[in-house]
Amino acid sequence: MSDLFASFDASSLSFADVEPGDGQRWTTWPSTIPTQRGPQPWPAWVVQDAGALDTELGILKTGKEADVFLLERAVPGDPSQRSLLAAKRYRSSEHSSFHRSAVYTEGRTTRNTRDARALAKKSSHGREVAASAWSLAEFEALCRMHQLGAPVPYPVQVNGTEVLMEFIGDASGTAAPRLAQVRSDRGELAGLYAQIVGIMRIFAAAGFAHGDLSAYNLLVHEGRVRVIDLPQIVDLIANPQGMDLLHRDCVNVCDWFTRRRVECDAEELFAELLAASWA
Ligand SMILES: Nc1ncnc2c1ncn2[C@@H]1O[C@H](COP(=O)(O)OP(=O)(O)O)[C@@H](O)[C@H]1O
Ligand SMILES: [Mg+2]
Q1: Which ligand is nearest the CA of 180, by number?
Q2: Mean pLDDT value across residues 98-108
Q3: Which ranges of 64-123 would DSSP assign to H, the alpha helix?
Q4: 166 C-alpha to center of ligand 1: Å?
Q5: Which ligand is closest to the CA of 63, given by its number?
Q6: 211-214 contact pairs (CB < 8 A, 24+)
Q7: In this structure, what are the phi and psi dihedrals at residue 199, rounded to the nearest 5 degrees?
Q8: What's this model's pTM, rounded to 2 decimal places?
Q9: Vertex 73, ends 67 and 76: CA angle to 5°?
């Protein structure tokens, strides 16, 4: 027995030797179609090998509409093919409360009439459709913003109610803190504020507002700000509430920084972003 272990060499494992164990599944990458995968070129760290396993490493956060899990996608025995992902899974159960429904979805349509009826009836199929619609909305918003150069987690793929994205944190699986948890001096905070204004400008110039911007949806990793939680992204023109939601984002951000004695003005920021959206 001990000899067997002594001679065990993980690098000699082959596809045929491995079976998913508890909390594992085969990678879902091969079963997704191109439109469910992130923008090309795929970063080198994206594991595409069909022999990879997805392993649940724990929960990052439970929320009202979605839970976020830490997932490892790795080819057993090949340390060069290992990545950590954040898996955001939208809930389709009765326990989810979609507080961000009506205001944000004005101006959006559901093409499939069966789905539209199910949504309206709030049946279990309807809840599944709603959850998948939110995950797709988040995935598409992440793709769009990534392509515009905004610092979002790279969107790896979407599959039903699950969005897989780049994990923002360290290699040991510790997630980057939310801005709300960051304790920095005023000078550092001023630098973070400037980065956030830059992000808001990218959104505005493309005709969007985040729509739920707060110190909880901004992560700070190694001094760089990343913006997350995009499913409700708001089209400034198509959504009749677009301007109000952009204004609210400005007020949320500026209130937070003003309380920490960073000089900023929500009305000035709002005016600047409006100008950027017309340019
Ligand atoms: N890509 C990510 N990398 C690291 N942590 C993340 C990532 N995405 C989400 N999280 C963590 O999960 C929390 C909830 O994610 P979020 O997208 O804001 O969902 P919710 O709708 O529940 O607010 C975040 O505040 C953050 O701590
Ligand atoms: Mg959030």
Answers
A1: 1
A2: 62
A3: 102-105, 113-121
A4: 11
A5: 1
A6: 211/100, 211/104, 211/245, 211/249, 212/100, 212/249, 213/249, 213/252, 213/253, 214/180, 214/252, 214/253, 214/256
A7: -65, -45
A8: 0.88
A9: 145
Active-site amino acid positions: 212, 229
Question: Which secondary-structure segment (H or E) carries 205?
Answer: helix 186-205
61 CA from centroid of ligand 1 (Å): 7
Mutation pick for ligand 1 pocket among 64, 68, 91, 96 (CB with most ligand atoms within 8 Å): 68
Domains located in the chain, CATH noted? 23-166 (3.30.200.20), 179-278 (1.10.510.10)
* pLDDT per residue as tens digits for the range 7-29: 444 444 555 567 999 999 999 99
Distance 278 CA to ligand 2 centre (A): 28
- Nearest atom, ligand 1, residue 216 CA: 25
In this structure, which amino acid lies at residue 104? Y
